[in-house]
Amino acid sequence: MKSGWTTSSVASFDYTIKSSFTLPESIPSAAKVGQYYYIELETTGGTGAITYTVTDGELPIGMELESETGVLAGAPQFSGTYIFTISATDSAAVPVTVSKEYRLEVAEPTLLSLSTDTTLVKLTALGTKHELMITAEYDNYATRDVTKNAQYSSGNESVATVDAKGVVTAVASGDTIIMVTFGELSKQVSVKVTNDRQLESISASLSMDQIAVGQETNLTVFAYFNDDSAEDATTWVTLELDNPDLVSIDDEGYITALKPGTANIKVTFLSEEKTLTLTIVE
């Protein structure tokens, strides 16, 4: 040891550098199907540009996270509970990443009202029909065609009937109501049936009377009344097939060939009948 030097203990310190780079503790957790949701995730701290990513879980379908701005936005398409983690990474020389788990509850919108294409159905000949159109309005400003989802009942089936698709059919002269129900709401539609017109005849035709397997042809039927009026009755008629294995027919009158052969199609509307022949080839 050199003269004048002394020895002493060296002090040591433990310390932690706390990062000031953070994501928000929470986000608005309530959303509704079809309703636009928007929030900008504002970080505190961090160096330079921030990049945002979803690193765990999934966002609701219809929503996206903008990677450069941290904007989480969109209109969720399905209800449910969504739990996801968002990470933010700064652009320091040694990038720092922070993450936070968030929860979003997406609820179904509230049904506010029902509307119909008409409040009074007038049927002026027996057997004629009217297809109702039902629209639901929600509190998220969205509307939806619920014609096929609603339930229907007739106040007097001896005057008019209604099927599960909302098609009203005139049975006899008189007045009745159709009750339309969807969700917890109901709406009445008035029906007035008169026998001002009488059916005189029908015509029936196929767009093609010979088609190959897999091809389509469409049926068209017109009803002619004694006041010289005519109406498209394609969706009103009853159809019978002598060989149902050969073709399929949908509600709009489109016929699809399934197997080769000859199919006879009997078309009936009230007292009138027509028979069409369709040839199916390979």
Concise summary:
The protein is built from no helices and 26 strands. The protein has 282 residues and is an all-beta fold.
Note the overall shape. elongated
Radius of gyration: 34 Å
Number of domains: 3
| Sheet having the most strands | 5 strands, antiparallel
Helix percentage range: under 10%
CATH topology (fold) name of the largest domain: Immunoglobulin-like
Task: Describe, in plain words, how this protein is organized in 3D.
The protein is mostly beta strands. The chain folds into 3 domains: 30-107, Immunoglobulins (Immunoglobulin-like), CATH 2.60.40; 111-193, Immunoglobulin-like; 199-281, Immunoglobulin-like (Sandwich), CATH 2.60.40.1080. 0% of the residues lie in helices and 52% in strands. The chain contains no helices and 26 strands. The protein is elongated, with a radius of gyration of 34 Å.
